[in-house]
Amino acid sequence: MTTEKLRVAAIDLGTNSFHMIIVEESKGKGIVEIDRVKNMICIGRGSISTKMLDEEAMLSGIAALKNFLVLAAHHGVVPENVIAFATSAIREAKNRLDFLRRIRDETGLKVKIISGREEAEFIYYGVRKAVKIGKSSDLLFDIGGGSVEFIIANNKGVQLLESRKIGVARMRERFVFSDPIDRHDIKMLEQFFSAEMDSPVEKASELKVTRAIASSGTAQNIARMIASMNGRESSVSLNNSLFSRKEFQVLYKAVLPLSSVERRRLTGLDVNRVDLIVPGLILVDMIFRLFNLSEIVVSDYALREGMVLHYLKNLGNDGSELESEFELDIRHESVYELGFRCAWNQEHAEHVAKLSLQLFDSLAPLHHLEAPYRELLEYASLLHNIGTFISISSHHKHSQYIILNGELRGFSPTEIEIIAHVVRYHRKSPPSERHTAYTLLKPIHKRAVDVLSGILRLANGLERGHRKNIQAINVSVKGSEITLLLTPRFEPDIEIWAAEQLKSWMETVLQKKIIIKSL
Known about the structure:
Elements: E1 5-13, E2 18-26, E3 30-39, H1 47-50, H2 55-74, E4 82-86, H3 88-92, H4 96-107, E5 112-113, H5 116-127, E6 138-143, E7 148-154, E8 157-164, H6 168-175, H7 183-196, H8 198-206, E9 211-215, H9 217-229, E10 242-244, H10 245-255, H11 260-263, H12 277-290, E11 295-298, H13 303-315, H14 330-341, H15 346-362, H16 364-367, H17 371-383, H18 395-405, H19 413-424, H20 436-439, H21 443-461, E12 470-478, E13 481-488, H22 493-502, H23 504-510, E14 513-518
Parallel strand pairs: 1-4, 4-5, 6-9, 9-11, 13-14
Antiparallel strand pairs: 1-2, 2-3, 6-7, 7-8, 10-11, 12-13
Helix pairs in contact: 2-4, 5-13, 6-12, 7-12, 9-12, 10-12, 15-17, 15-21, 17-19, 17-21, 18-19, 19-21, 21-22, 21-23
């Protein structure tokens, strides 16, 4: 398939809710979310014990799917590019085939029932596109209504794929008979979770797993509640955010004694999860304990995103974007996709990045920043001008806004903040305590923003003519002076003039005078 742009809708018929995500894939820009919708159908209501889907829930599900398909059509998705998968509750129901036939007859939609192992595999595809998986093995887990998927993987591939029937709706129906939950119900849940997680716990211990990545609404809701509890903004993307075992324990101890009426008043708790959050908290507590974890990272991507990625890969449409896990660099890929979406000047951005990294390396004995900051400088340099997509005037501020809200994948919220601040100060005024967002940074991050923005200001000045004139920068330090000796292709008058205008902040940061010369 060679279409330049392709729109796909992926529908997940889950135990608690039906979800649909609509994305557009195009060359360079990658996969961009167009819309998403959720309907809490609770198709698994009562079916976990009876193994029969409720008639009212089935009617609600079919009505929701009809609305999903209308929305997908309005967004330009052709019927053959609508994919739908059913998971735990439907998978186990005796009347599942009758329900799928009714869906097909009334909507035309063909729903595929996937196994627990397939579900885990799709979740892996999704998560690894949102959170960077390294050389050491990570535990990935996704808490659904009927099942919980456990994946252990590193950047070379998957080492474990398992699905366990311990989803929060199933556990609530089977074990929670009190409100607030009493000690007996908690103990029964803990014992059941422990027995069901024995295999992944053993494999994680064997592979020396120390980090966990959680996807799904339950994990995101817990992260949002912890953020609210700590007075942090919780409406922004949670991707790559993390919560510690200590933070979680504070939430756990505060929420578990509450009744459903009291939980309903909690900030950050989705009203549809007032009851489900109880087995969810107990499950996450057991995961912390059994896997001996100190923190959990949150992934915004999971099953639905994995469905889309797998579908596109099979179409052969997304060849450049969907490389194997051996080659996947989601941070670099995500930065370039954002650049393309903002119609960036790629050659200029890449040359500024090249000069920035030369300066970072040459000035390392003075700034003492470690390698991770070098990578953030590279990405800030690549994105410094994307705000011109909105307006040339104040484009540094527009660039900052786009980066903060551009849903960059693979970065923690703190890393995104640092990149955005470095870009904010690449021109005009330097960092200042008068700027509220800057004052809220930790001292160590302020220092990084100070140094990196100073470097970017210089590099941007040395590419003022947008002609890639400066080929190399030789840096020498003598006493209180730093000399930048430029290797140009042409007379660098415009570049030296611009850099002279922008060098003062770096002089302040490093407490040295900067002299700029040309060969």
